[in-house]
Design a protein that fits this description.
heterodimer, A: two-stranded antiparallel sheet, 10 helices, 17% strand, B: alpha/beta, 2-enoyl-CoA Hydratase, Chain A, domain 1, eight-stranded mixed beta sheet, 14 helices, 9 strands, binds zinc ion
Chain lengths: 296, 337
């Protein structure tokens, strides 16, 4: 495969030196792995193959050479996952508030308004009714294009409403999980969404409802430690980063080398916390099969 | 259970309390001189310290009030971490009768960062669960300064299920900087353990009262903090991440100045959380915080728990209790539209 001449400087290799290794570890949830970049041609971050952008997009944004799964925004997810034209979005009017009047380098309000302009959405989650291979579902999709799919009050509220709707309609609930967890700018209001969504899932489960959780890259923090890990069946996309604490914080704390493939979907499969690691092209059929066994 | 040692005798000082502590030293020196049993030179009848002592004590009270009345968010975090601040074991020793500790999660091990067991508080037989930060260096290292592993959260849930089976209410005391960030904790499913506790506590068929007694660090805190009533002690903190963690991410570096900014921005204090609706009650601390007047703090917290459990026992049908709890959890959050 053709390689570009100007390779970026490779990351320094991990060594056994305890004083140094932690510095080499990047936190994947902090520096977002980019989606398919703009331009006709692009280089895959995994295999470094130069591929035609259109071709990768037609391949569900998966590298045609090595199966690297690029991150995709919620709108693209909808088009990839549900039956064409079947998605009925709900509660799109819900918008964040800034009850803490949070300011770091810029205000929270400026942050979310910027993301709203960029994405055309009010917050980091799409929810609604849809069909997947003809099976009726309620679906919620976290949007990594919006403040890295962090969870504030709006995300939590929409997920909770979606779960309650699934319970009422007696339909399977599907959540495509992503993001770095609870949104710092909403502090305990964000933490509380972990509780609220988990409580709604308890009721959905008590009513006999099916919940399929799909973990995509990256699923960490408060998102992982609530609805993401509560699926009756938990699917994870190939090589997705999944964990509670970011790898860099862990490396900083324990001051030792992290195991090979730490916090990848495959790692969680091996440790027993994921049912199936799936290729994006199989997601629709995997969900449909599970619904046929466990859905109503 | 680790035996609580006596009050802290170390030399730790909160920086913003230095003038206050200087005054306290003056007072105790004078008291010693005025006391014939303590004075090295014996009591000189010509000297009467009463007036001086009275004046010093007055200015001490005034200064204490002034400092603690407007205690900022970052100073509150510092108070919540004071080495003499009462921990779960201190409260258990102070007012839990017949505490019978239960160990282990039945899957992997026994996490010393979580203490759980049967006990009686006032007239109420219950299960008590709390974070353990450690009273000395050895303990602190063993329980990772109150940062629990998955097996800690699973032990907590096991004991809560016992409480449910035998119709005992659950009392949890939250005091953690956060769930432990390690390799083993990730391998054994830290996220799953916390998530399952959130789900199961939301539908536990017995009353749950939770109190943040020191630090309420995010998922690690709510992993035992889903309740019918969630309260915070006046000088405890509760947030999505520690101020240091927030400063490191949003201000790129954690230093005292940025930590203070982060603590302010995240509204970590009890009264702020009450305004946001994320907690139900603020439990007042003695003047100058719990570490100064420990017995007073024990009495206040004991009374609070007894009263709340009494209220919650009015729910005769567990399904009504659980429905009411869901209503409470359902309201969490603030949105527009
Ligand atoms: Zn590739």
């Amino acid at each position: 495969m053709a390689k570009t001449t100007a390779d970026p400087k490779p990351a320094p290799p991990l060594t056994g030196d305890r004083r140094r290794t932690w510095k080499d570890v990047k936190d994947p949830s902090e520096s977002p792995r980019p989606g398919v970049p703009e331009g006709l041609w692009q280089k895959c971050p995994t295999c470094e193959a130069t591929t035609y952008r259109k071709q990768v997009e037609d391949n569900l944004s998966v590298c045609t050479e090595c199966d690297h799964h690029y991150r995709v925004g919620a709108d693209t997810r909808v088009s990839q996952l549900v039956d064409p034209g079947s998605f009925e979005p709900l509660w799109d009017n819900l918008s964040p508030m800034d009850p803490l009047k949070f300011v770091d380098r810029i205000t929270y309000k400026e942050r979310y308004e910027k993301a709203q302009k960029q994405t055309g959405h009010n917050d980091a989650l799409l929810a609604g009714k849809a069909f997947i291979k003809g099976r009726g579902v309620v679906i919620a999709i976290m949007n990594t294009d919006f403040m890295m799919a962090s969870m504030g009050s709006v995300v939590g509220e929409k997920i909770t409403r979606a779960i309650e709707l699934a319970t009422d309609l007696d339909r399977p609930m599907i959540i495509l999980c992503a993001g770095g967890g609870a949104r710092m700018q909403e502090a305990t209001l964000a933490v509380s969404q972990m509780i609220k969504t988990s409580a709604a899932l308890a009721r959905h489960g008590d009513a006999g409802g099916l919940y399929i959780s799909v973990l995509t890259d990256p699923t960490t923090g408060g998102t992982a430690a609530s609805f993401a890990m509560l699926g009756d069946v938990i699917l994870a996309e190939h090589k997705a980063m999944i964990g509670f604490t970011g790898a860099r914080v862990i490396a900083n704390t324990v001051r030792q080398e992290l195991p090979e493939g730490f916090q990848t979907a495959e790692f969680l499969l091996e440790k027993g916390f994921v049912d199936r690691v799936v290729h994006r092209k199989d997601l629709r059929s995997e969900i449909a099969i599970i619904i046929d066994y466990a859905g109503k | 259970m680790p035996q609580a040692s006596d009050a802290y005798t170390g030399t730790f000082e909160l920086e913003f309390e230095r003038p206050l502590l200087a005054l306290e030293r003056q007072i105790s020196e004078l008291e010693a001189q005025a006391d014939p049993n303590q004075s090295a030179v014996g009591l000189d009848p010509k000297l009467d310290f009463t007036a001086d002592l009275k004046k010093l004590r007055q200015s001490h009270t005034a200064m204490l009030k002034k400092i603690y009345k407007g205690l900022g968010a970052w100073n509150t975090v510092q108070v919540s971490r004071h080495p003499n601040r009462p921990q779960t074991v201190d409260y258990i020793n102070a007012f839990v009768k017949n505490f019978t500790e239960l160990h282990g999660d039945r899957f992997y091990g026994d996490d010393p960062a979580i203490i759980a067991g049967f006990g009686r508080i006032g007239p109420h037989k219950c299960c008590i669960i709390g974070h353990h930060k450690g009273k000395n260096v050895k303990e602190k290292i063993a329980c990772h300064f109150g940062c629990a592993h998955p097996e800690g959260y699973r032990k907590a849930l096991r004991v809560m299920k016992l409480a449910e089976k035998f119709g005992l209410p659950v009392v949890t005391l939250v005091d953690t900087p956060g769930a432990y960030p390690g390799i083993g904790s990730e391998e054994r499913g830290q996220a799953e353990a916390i998530a399952v506790n959130l789900r199961e506590m939301s539908r536990l068929k017995v009353p749950i009262v939770s109190v943040v007694i020191g630090e309420g660090g995010s998922g690690g805190a709510i992993g035992i903090g889903v309740a019918d009533r969630l309260a915070m002690l006046q000088y405890s903190w509760y947030s999505v991440i520690s101020p240091e963690g927030c400063a490191a991410i949003l201000w790129k570096i954690a230093n005292p100045e940025n930590n203070a900014k982060a603590a302010d921005a995240m509204k970590v204090r009890a009264q702020d959380n009450l305004k946001l609706g994320t907690i139900d009650d603020v439990i007042p601390e003695p003047m100058g915080s719990a570490y100064r007047y420990r017995q007073q703090m024990y009495d206040t917290l004991e009374k609070y728990i007894i009263e709340r459990l009494r209220e919650l026992k009015r729910f005769k049908k567990p399904e009504n209790l659980v429905a009411k709890r869901y209503q409470r959890l359902r309201k969490l959050g603030q949105i527009s539209g």
